[in-house]
């Protein structure tokens, strides 16, 4: 790298570092997806093996295509990172028929742990771009991590497929043309959440972490709920690393809402404290997105709750999801795919489909962007489409009710109805 280029990069990193100081921690050791996991825990400190040779012609024949995946493989969102990376590995195998090759090009992928820290995410993304020379970035579990990395993808002119971070700003005011998102965004969640509880004159309080993820999620929910005639009577935000939510809950109860809508992610969830403080016994119905299985196990007192789900393994009815469930159980000691596993798989499928559309040529990023804009592809959640205007994947979500079922020790999301991609399409806010 020339001195001039080095100074440019360092200058950009300085700007990114300054932005990081304003980014709160938000929601979900290096590792590689090149070797299949045979145990329940992900392998770490490994890289996929593949001899990378120079392109033999303009189409890149013989060139190994590299994908760098950023995920929270430690920290509060560790479970989300694990789900995403497992799904990504399965997605590459599904989309390539198990060969990990496209048009004669080997597919190599490298997992990096962001530790759910934006500054670490920047360092790991820089390593992937400059040392590993990846052709695509994927990630991350945290919206804060993702927002910190977006400028690096733009500077390097590499496509970044965002999964599972949901902050609206990623495909909104912080968007650049290299950003594509297979994850749903906060506005899509909001449409589903509002549809479940909002109506004329309904009083609703909200609760979320004080982060990009939390505030974007509540802002989008408020907009959708108010359009349906609801009154937002209280908003509470808690430090994302807090473990005591007493003051927040007391203010919510004092406002006397009919519903409490919660946006949350991570291990330090408020569910148990809401139960301990007998919020529902005071006439306040709780509504939220159905979380991953670990969090569902803390929600026993919420049986009967109506809300929405991004994914639960019994909700989608299609052949890809059936393959995902069976293959996941085979590889990971009988474990079921969880909330963000299909997202990781969808991200991988989208990249493989883009590579197929360009006949394996990843050297021309503008050509890849053209191929991906408006591209539809099949996923465990059904068909997704990258909207041309902002590269947000339009996709199904699910209106659900939590019910007890034999064979599980947690309330299960049961389908009320599938919300179509057209119904959940979020507003375009990137001012492209």
From TrEMBL:
<dbReference type="Pfam" id="PF13458">
    <property type="entry name" value="Peripla_BP_6"/>
</dbReference>
<keyword id="KW-0732">Signal</keyword>
<dbReference type="InterPro" id="IPR028081">
    <property type="entry name" value="Leu-bd"/>
</dbReference>
<feature type="compositionally biased region" description="Basic and acidic residues">
    <location>
        <begin position="44"/>
        <end position="55"/>
    </location>
</feature>
<feature type="domain" description="Leucine-binding protein">
    <location>
        <begin position="64"/>
        <end position="404"/>
    </location>
</feature>
<feature type="compositionally biased region" description="Polar residues">
    <location>
        <begin position="30"/>
        <end position="43"/>
    </location>
</feature>
<dbReference type="InterPro" id="IPR051010">
    <property type="entry name" value="BCAA_transport"/>
</dbReference>
<feature type="signal peptide">
    <location>
        <begin position="1"/>
        <end position="27"/>
    </location>
</feature>
<dbReference type="InterPro" id="IPR028082">
    <property type="entry name" value="Peripla_BP_I"/>
</dbReference>
<feature type="region of interest" description="Disordered">
    <location>
        <begin position="30"/>
        <end position="59"/>
    </location>
</feature>
<comment type="similarity">
    <text>Belongs to the leucine-binding protein family.</text>
</comment>
<protein>
    <submittedName>
        <fullName>ABC transporter permease</fullName>
    </submittedName>
</protein>
